[in-house]
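Wed. Picked up where I left off yesterday with ArsR/SmtB family transcription factor. The coffee machine is broken again, so keeping this brief.
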Amino acid sequence: MRQAHHPELGEILLTEVMAALSDPIRVGLVRVLADGRERGWGELRAPVAKSTLSHHLRVLRDAGLTRTRQEGTRCFVLLRREDVRARFPGLLDVVLAAAEADDVGRQVGLKGGPNAA
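Structure written out below (tokens, as returned):
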């Protein structure tokens, strides 16, 4: 697998971040990752095919919202909360609060978690 591109702080664009956050599955992924823990892709549960989940994770990474790390055959993802906060102060907190209030992305969780199917 080739090395994934992660935008530098100055390359993170508001329009790209907002576009990435326009999908409920991606908002759900951000909610899951908001605890600050790095998660293996296999830990994530969403009502989509694995290829579609991979697409959503790539959109988040390309927008600068997440950082992906590969270790052997496993991939891990981490929310770039501090980078997003430095670039757009308060944005992520507002988005997460609104998503929680409106229950956006509730169908996304961790395997074996409270929303497990």
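Quick read: The domain at 23-102 is CATH 1.10.10.10 (Arc Repressor Mutant, subunit A).
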